TrEMBL record:
CDD domains: SRPBCC_CalC_Aha1-like_2. This is Activator of Hsp90 ATPase 1 family protein. It holds the Pfam family AHSA1. SUPFAM superfamilies: Bet v1-like (SSF55961). Residues 12-150 form the Activator of Hsp90 ATPase homologue 1/2-like C-terminal domain. It comes from Catenulispora acidiphila (strain DSM 44928 / JCM 14897 / NBRC 102108 / NRRL B-24433 / ID139908). Gene3D superfamilies: 3.30.530.20. Belongs to the AHA1 family.
Amino acid sequence: MATTRSVRLILAPRSAVYRALLDPNAVRQWMVPDGMTSQVHSFDAREGGAFRISLTYDAPTETGKTSAQTDTFHGRFVELVPDSKVVQAIEFETDVPDLRGEMTVSYELRDVPGGTEVSGRHENLPPGVSAADNELGWRMSMDKLAALVETG
């Protein structure tokens, strides 16, 4: 199982970044790669709380994990450390064996000159998920997270 990582400087305080990680409206805006639309079905931002999100391709495709157009995943919050860390366990909703299995997504926040360093780690990628595509998605999402919190 592969692991991908992303590190991004965000020109905003840790508290603002942390809030955006746990606000369903913010998540809908930033946790989506380019060329996709996000829908947050449920989102209970507390340790043990569950969430369910769908990402739908804007253009016709056959590459969705749940359906031809959509990747739907569900999960739970494993650990929340205010203004410092978010750990989630997630799993795609799919019948494809190579796309199944629980993954761990972690965000760690630390103060750096000028803002917050966000270190993201996506562990236990199923064999059917391209590490390169996952890293690209991370970069796109982190850029959107930065744009969202830097503009207030």
